């Protein structure tokens, strides 16, 4: 005769594995935004690109930059050819979603002209600031940042400081920066099915453990 407690323990482990599989599935659905399907000349990122509204962000190809400005942080910061996004002359630059929210997972950032450039990255939901951090980047190579802003509807970027790297295209330096290969997860304004499933499964596991205790 099979022990009732062992059967319940096996069932609880199956439920836990099911929950984990859904969780990993959700993280695997992250959207990688490369900007490489946009035009090669400098142009504003259109509203709706990657499901987001873009303000003061533009895209440009490394070939255009190389032809017109020589080597600089735009070229050095290109993770996936040919394009990068860049923040123009006005702070802050931002991307946002009209309804609901999203998770901002990670991105690569590179200073365009100044080494030691500070970039303040803030996350908001319904006008309330939920996250804030300041990262420091150089112009020689892209730096990967795991941002992990969860459930936001707006992310802003404000750059300041640093010292000119002396590139011929802008020897006096500047506060612009390049961004490439950012990852986001879209989040529905209503509870996610995986969240509901997790709650249901967790309740089931707790109930089974209680029942197992009684049976034992």
Number of strands: 14
Overall geometric form: globular
Q: Element order, helices and strands? A: HEEEEHHEEEEEEEEEEH
Radius of gyration: 23 Å
Integer tally of domains: 2
Output mean pLDDT: 80
The biggest sheet, with number of strands, parallel, antiparallel or mixed sense and barrel status, is:
7 strands, antiparallel
Q: Which secondary-structure class do the elements indicate?
A: alpha+beta
Helix content: 25-40%
CATH topology of the largest domain: Jelly Rolls
Q: Strand share of the residues?
A: 35-45%
Walk me through the topology:
Layout: H1 4-28, E1 31-33, E2 43-44, E3 53-55, E4 57-61, H2 62-69, H3 73-76, E5 83-87, E6 93-96, E7 101-111, E8 114-115, E9 117-125, E10 128-137, E11 143-152, E12 154-160, E13 163-164, E14 177-187, H4 193-215
Antiparallel strand pairs: 1-14, 2-4, 3-6, 4-5, 5-14, 6-12, 7-11, 7-14, 8-13, 9-10, 9-12
Helix pairs in contact: 1-4
Structure, explained:
By secondary structure, the protein is α+β, with helices and mostly antiparallel strands. The chain has 2 domains: 4-25 and 193-215; 31-187, Sandwich (Jelly Rolls), CATH 2.60.120.1350. Helices cover 28% and strands 39% of the residues. The chain is built from 4 helices and 14 strands. The strands form 3 sheets. Strands 1, 2, 4, 5, 7, 11 and 14 form a 7-stranded antiparallel β-sheet that branches. Strands 3-6-12-9-10 form a 5-stranded antiparallel β-sheet, with no helix packed on it. Strands 8-13 form a two-stranded antiparallel sheet. Helix 1 runs antiparallel to helix 4 (193-215). It is globular and about 45 Å long. The model is unreliable at 4-27 and 187-216 (pLDDT under 50).
């Amino acid at each position: 005769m099979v022990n009732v407690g062992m059967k319940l323990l096996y069932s609880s482990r199956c439920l836990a594995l099911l929950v984990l599989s859904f969780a990993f599935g959700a993280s695997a659905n992250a959207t990688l935004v490369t900007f490489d399907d946009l035009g090669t000349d400098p142009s504003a990122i259109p509203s709706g690109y990657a499901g987001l509204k873009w303000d003061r962000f533009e895209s440009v190809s490394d070939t255009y930059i190389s032809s017109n400005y020589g080597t600089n942080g735009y070229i050095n910061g290109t993770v996936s050819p040919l394009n990068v996004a860049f923040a123009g002359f006005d702070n802050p630059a931002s991307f946002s979603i009209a309804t609901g929210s999203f998770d901002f997972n990670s991105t690569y950032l590179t200073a365009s002209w100044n080494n030691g450039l500070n970039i303040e990255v803030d996350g908001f939901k319904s006008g309330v600031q939920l996250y804030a951090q300041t990262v420091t980047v150089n112009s020689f190579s892209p730096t990967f940042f795991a941002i992990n802003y969860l459930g936001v509807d707006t992310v802003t970027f404000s750059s300041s400081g640093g010292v000119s790297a002396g590139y011929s295209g802008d020897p006096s330096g500047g506060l612009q920066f390049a961004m490439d290969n950012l990852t986001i997860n879209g989040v529905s304004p209503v509870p996610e099915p995986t969240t509901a499933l997790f709650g249901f499964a967790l309740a089931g596991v707790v109930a089974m453990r209680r029942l197992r205790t009684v049976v034992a």
